[in-house]
Amino acid sequence: MNVANEAVAGHHAPHGNHGGHLGAHGATHRQYMVGFLLAIILTAIPFALVMSHSVAGTPLLIAGFAMAQIIVHVVYFLHVNSSEGQRWNLVALIYTAIVVGIILGGSIWIMHHLYLNMMPGMMHGRVR
User: Fold this and answer.
1) How far apart are CA 3 and CA 9, in angstroms?
2) Using CA atoms, how far apart are residues 19 and 12, in angstroms rounded to an integer?
3) Of 41, 49, 73, 105, which shows the fewest CB atoms inside 10 Å?
4) How many other C-beta atoms can be found within 10 angstroms of the C-beta atom of residue 35?
5) What is the distance of C-alpha 87 from the center of its chain?
6) Domain range for residue 118?
């Protein structure tokens, strides 16, 4: 009988085997609250920067806070860390981040060079 069928049938595992999901991650209510508060703070600060029109480097600050928020979500909510049990999840996450970085960076690089090479002001004399 699997765990779902045991729960429906009313059979309960002993307490030593019961906390398998949370026990493997070691997540507590306090850790979730810390993650939640960090996520709120990392959202409120960029929002305040945009609403106050404060500095010229706001897009870079927003990107920095976004990266910090991604790390908070991965650590506090997805429970990915460098432990032995999470090693393959961490490798998959790093691989995904590298691929997404290459795709985004390459796209921005291509669009920037297209913008530089196809400016409308430079094409007036070339139309035949």
Assistant:
1) 10
2) 12
3) 105
4) 19
5) 18
6) 81-128
Residue 48 placed within a domain? no
pLDDT band at 10 (very low <50, low <70, confident <90, very high): low
H/E run at residue 46:
helix 29-52
User: Counting Cβ atoms within 10 Å, is residue 34 exposed (0-12), middle (13-18) or buried (19+)?
Assistant: middle
Radius of gyration of the chain, Cα coordinates, nearest whole angstrom: 24
Buried b (16+ CB within 10 A) or exposed e, 38-55: bbeebeeebeebeeeeee
73 lies in a domain? no
**Number of domains into which the chain is organized:** 1
**DSSP letter assigned to residue 86:** G
